[in-house]
Amino acid sequence: MHIGVKLPHTGTAVPASTVARRAQHLESAGFDSLWVSDHVVQPNVIESWYPFGADGKATWPTDTPYLEALVVLAAAAAVTDRVRLGTASLVLPQRNPVLLAKQVATVDAMSGGRVALGIGAGWLREEFEALDTPFETRGARMVEWIGLLRDCWTGQPAAHSGKHYELPGGTMVFPAPAHQIPLYIGGHSPVALKRAGRLADGWLAQQAVPALDPDQLAADIAVIREAASAAGRDPAKLHIVLRLVESTGRAAEVAKRIGDLAKAGVGEIIVDVDPLDGDAAGDHAILRDASNR
DSSP code of 179? Predict the structure, then answer.
């Protein structure tokens, strides 16, 4: 089991000027990966259905600062040597795919090939509207964008004439990434699960620690693997990442469930630690010990 941690780049507890230092601290604590979340803008009041809440309500203050995800990963890349750097998750269809390919390839080249891209179709209609991006076609554009990203990462993408994007021939997008960047599709809907199996390198799941349900994860992973097999892909090669929200201060509680998560098919977890400092190394040691049993 790989042990990842969310880099505290949201909220006001950690000053923006110290986020890179926190990346260094978390790498030194022993974590395998650092992850960032993503919102470009938020409305004063969220009316959209939040898919990760039982009642569909997003509960955080919408004036919570979010340092931009890829800028933060670039800063972390500059001050770390070992940890993988990922998004959990980036809202793919609200970004220009060619510009995004360039940005991600740049961070990957700067980091020596340590980037993983967790992506989602998005759920916050108000954010799409503020970015002048269609909300209703986000799923179809996400599928098209995945192909464009991978093609752009070759450095010399073919001409593309899709339903949602035109890319002329003879376009060059350099630098190419330092390695083959894995794409993990997020979401728990049947459509998202099947997309992960058919198109991605893995799945990015999310559950809250108080409501952790390994059986549900196992059922969802079975759907993903079945979709992969139907598409002629090897389901054993899919990497399953689980973002554990409401996990701050709960390392011991999570450690007790790591065996169940591994049996369900989870290969990596992402936890939260005290954003100010806390005992990050201690939390990591508890989780690592449980994962090694």
Answer: S
Torsion of CA 49, 122, 208, 11, to 10 degrees: -100
Angstrom distance (rounded) from CA 59 to CA 41: 16
Distance separating alpha carbons of residues 10 and 26, to the nearest angstrom: 16
Q: Count how many Cα atoms sit within 13 Å of the Cα of residue 116 in the half-sphere of its side chain.
A: 26
Say which amino acid occupies 132: D
Per residue in 219-249, pLDDT (tens digit) is 999 999 999 999 999 999 999 999 999 999 9
Q: Are 74 and 107 in contact (CB under 8 A)?
A: yes
CB 105, CB 74: distance < 8 Å? no
CA pair distance 8, 56, nearest whole angstrom: 25
Q: How many alpha carbons fall within 13 Å on the CB side of residue 125?
A: 9
Name the token pair of 270: 């992402």
Q: Write out pLDDT tens, residues 14-49.
A: 899 999 999 999 999 999 999 999 999 999 999 999
Distance (Å, whole) CA 103 – CA 107? 6
Distance from C-alpha of 4 to C-alpha of 108, rounded to nearest angstrom: 18
The reported pTM is 0.96
- Number of helical H runs and strand E runs in the chain: 10, 10
CA pair distance 263, 276, nearest whole angstrom: 33
Other beta carbons within 10 angstroms of residue 232's beta carbon come to: 7
- Nearest-CA neighbor of 224 among 209, 242, 245, 244? 242
Rounded to the nearest 10°, the torsion over CA 58, 216, 7, 16 is -10
